[in-house]
UniProtKB/TrEMBL annotation:
Catalytic activity: acetate + ATP + CoA = acetyl-CoA + ADP + phosphate
Upper classification of the organism: Archaea, Methanobacteriati, Methanobacteriota, Stenosarchaea group, Halobacteria
UniProt xrefs under InterPro entries: Acyl-CoA_Synth/Transferase, CoA-bd, NAD(P)-bd_dom_sf, Succ_CoA_lig_flav_dom, Succinyl-CoA_synth-like
SMART domains according to UniProt: CoA_binding (SM00881)
Protein name: acetate--CoA ligase (ADP-forming)
C-alpha cells in the first residue's frame, strides 16, 4: 500500500547519487549487509560501510559508526538493518542530508497492522527530511551504466547496460527481467524493485525514467496499487513508451497483499485503464521485453498495418496469423509495390502481403525495401532462416527504419554460432532481433496496439479519464 508521495523529492539522489552509505554493513558473508556492500563497491564514487560495531575495513573501505560521521558527499543510504531500526536510521540520514534510501527489510505494510504502523512511522520520518524511499521489502535496484548495484542479489554485476528501464513491483520479477534481458543480449538502463512503494511508486519511477537519456522504453510489472489513476496519468504523460504486465487474472489477492501490500483489484479494469491511457499490456515477461525492444529501438509507428517479408512460407503463415491475433493488420500492398516486387523477382511465390520469396537471395533486401516504402505499411517484419552463404541484408537494413520512419523488425533462426556475427551487425544497425516467428509477431502486435492506442487518443482529442466501469468501480479503489 502506498502511504504517501514526495513530489518535492528528486529521484536523482536515488538513481544517480554522489556517494553511497551501506548502513548495517557486515563482514559476515551471506548477510544482506555483506552482499549489499560487495555489490555497492563497484560504484565509481565513494562507498561507506556504516556500522557502530564494525572495525577496520570492509572491501578496502573503513567502517564508519554513523552516517552523521561521514566526511564526504553521500546522497543514498542502503539500509541493511531490521525493520524496527529503520526510522532511527532515517532520522540520522536526515541529519546527514542524505536524500534517498533503499529499505531491504520486510515486516512493513505487507505484514498486517503492526507492519502498517511501522511503515507509516517510516514515511513520516522520510517526509520530514524529504527522503525518497525505495521499498521497504525490496531487493533494491541496479543501474548498469553507472556500475550502481544497490542490491544484495547475486549476479548483479553480470547485467549489462541497455535502454530498457525495468520497474517491477516485485524485486524478484525485476531481477527475472534483468537476467532475461542479459540472456537476450539486450541489457537494461535500470532494474528497480519497488517493493511496498512507501513514497516512491510507479508514477514517480515512470516520471524519472521518462527523463532519463539512457532509457528508450519503460516496462512495468504490476500486481496492484491503490493509486491507479496517478500511475495511468504518468503513462499518458510519458514521452517514453510504457508497456505493462499486469498479473492477477485469477484470484491472487491475498498472496499479492502479503507480498508487497498490493491491492490487486479487477484485472480487466487495469488492462482497460492502461489501454485508455496509451500503454499496451502483455501477458508474459518475454513479451514485455520484446515489446520494449521493438518500441525502444524503432521510430514510433503511425498505424497498425504490418508488412511482412518472409523467406519461408511456413514461418510466414505463423507470423501472419499471430500478428492479426495480437492486434495488427496486414494491408494489401499497393499496385506499384507489387509491380516493383515482380520486377525484382519475377514469378515470386507470393507477391502480396506477406511477401514470400521462397528462400533468401541476394535481392532479398530490395524486396524488404520495397515493402518498407509502401505507403500502406506502418511496421515491417522480416523473417528468414539463416543461410551462411548469403547472410542477412545488413547494408540494406542499416538506416532503413530511420529513412522510411517506420519500425523494421527482424526474426531468424539457425545455428547460433553461425549467425552470431550477422546478428551482432543487425543489432549494431538498430534493428530489433527476435529468435522465433511468434515472438517477432507478438512484438509487431505490440507496436500495432501502441500505434492504435495513440491514434485513438489523437482522434478523441486526448485520452479520456478512466473513471469507472459499468458498476462504478474505480481502478484506484481501495478494497
Amino acid at each position: 500500500m502506498e502511504f504517501g508521495l514526495c513530489p518535492s523529492v528528486t529521484l536523482q539522489q536515488l538513481f544517480d547519487p554522489s556517494g553511497v552509505a551501506v548502513v548495517g554493513a557486515s563482514d559476515t558473508e551471506g548477510k544482506i549487509g555483506y552482499e549489499a556492500m560487495a555489490n555497492a563497491v563497484a560504484f565509481d564514487g565513494p562507498v561507506y560501510p556504516v556500522n557502530p560495531s564494525g572495525e577496520g575495513e570492509l572491501f578496502g573501505r573503513e567502517f564508519v559508526a554513523s552516517v552523521t560521521e561521514i566526511d564526504g558527499d553521500v546522497d543514498l543510504a542502503l539500509c541493511c538493518v531490521p525493520g524496527p531500526a529503520v526510522p532511527d536510521v532515517l532520522e540520522e540520514c536526515g541529519e546527514a542530508g542524505i536524500g534517498a534510501a533503499v529499505i531491504y527489510a520486510s515486516g512493513f505494510a505487507e505484514a498486517g497492522e503492526k507492519g502498517e504502523e511501522l511503515q507509516e512511522a517510516t514515511v513520516a520520518v522520510a517526509d520530514e527530511h524529504d527522503i525518497s524511499l525505495l521499498g521497504p521489502n525490496t531487493s533494491g535496484f541496479i543501474v548498469p551504466a553507472l556500475d550502481l548495484r544497490c542490491s544484495f542479489a547475486s549476479g548483479a554485476e553480470e547485467i549489462p547496460a541497455g535502454n530498457i528501464a525495468v520497474v517491477a513491483q516485485s524485486g524478484g520479477v525485476g531481477l527475472v527481467l534483468a537476467f532475461q534481458a542479459r540472456r537476450q543480449g539486450r541489457g537494461v538502463s535500470a532494474e528497480v524493485g519497488l517493493g511496498n512503494r512507501a513514497n516512491v511508486g510507479f508514477a514517480e519511477a515512470i516520471e524519472y525514467f521518462d527523463g532519463d537519456e539512457k532509457t528508450d522504453a519503460i516496462v512495468l510489472h504490476i500486481e496492484g496499487t491503490d493509486d491507479g489513476r496517478r500511475v495511468l496519468e504518468a503513462c499518458r504523460a510519458s514521452d517514453t513508451p510504457v508497456i505493462a504486465y499486469k498479473v492477477g487474472q485469477s484470484d491472487v489477492g491475498d498472496f499479492a497483499e502479503s507480498h508487497t501490500g498490493a491491492l490487486t483489484g479487477d484485472h480487466e479494469l487495469y488492462t482497460a485503464g492502461f489501454a485508455q491511457y496509451g500503454a499496451p499490456t502483455v501477458d508474459a515477461t518475454d513479451d514485455l521485453l520484446d515489446a520494449a525492444a521493438a518500441l525502444g529501438n524503432s521510430p514510433e509507428p503511425d498505424g497498425p498495418n504490418v508488412g511482412v517479408v518472409t523467406a519461408q512460407a511456413g514461418p510466414g503463415i505463423i507470423i501472419t496469423d499471430r500478428i492479426q491475433r495480437a492486434g495488427g493488420r496486414l494491408p494489401e500492398l499497393t499496385a506499384d509495390t507489387q509491380e516493383t516486387i515482380d520486377e525484382i523477382l519475377p514469378g515470386i511465390t507470393y507477391a502480396d502481403n506477406p511477401v514470400d520469396t521462397g528462400r533468401p537471395m541476394p535481392a532479398f533486401g530490395d524486396i524488404v525495401t520495397a515493402v518498407a516504402e509502401d505507403e500502406r505499411v506502418d511496421i515491417v517484419l522480416v523473417y528468414e532462416l539463416f543461410e551462411a552463404s548469403i547472410g542477412y541484408p545488413i547494408e540494406t537494413l542499416d538506416g532503413l527504419a530511420e529513412r522510411v520512419g517506420k519500425p523494421v523488425l527482424f526474426a531468424s533462426e539457425g545455428i547460433e554460432e553461425d549467425l552470431a556475427e550477422e546478428r551482432a551487425k543487425l543489432e549494431a544497425a538498430g534493428i530489433p532481433y527476435f529468435p522465433t516467428p511468434e515472438r517477432a509477431a507478438d512484438a509487431a502486435g505490440a507496436l500495432a496496439r501502441y500505434a492504435k492506442l495513440h491514434d485513438d487518443a489523437v482522434a478523441d482529442g486526448g485520452i479520456a479519464a478512466l473513471d469507472a466501469d459499468a458498476d462504478g468501480r474505480e481502478v484506484s479503489r481501495d478494497e
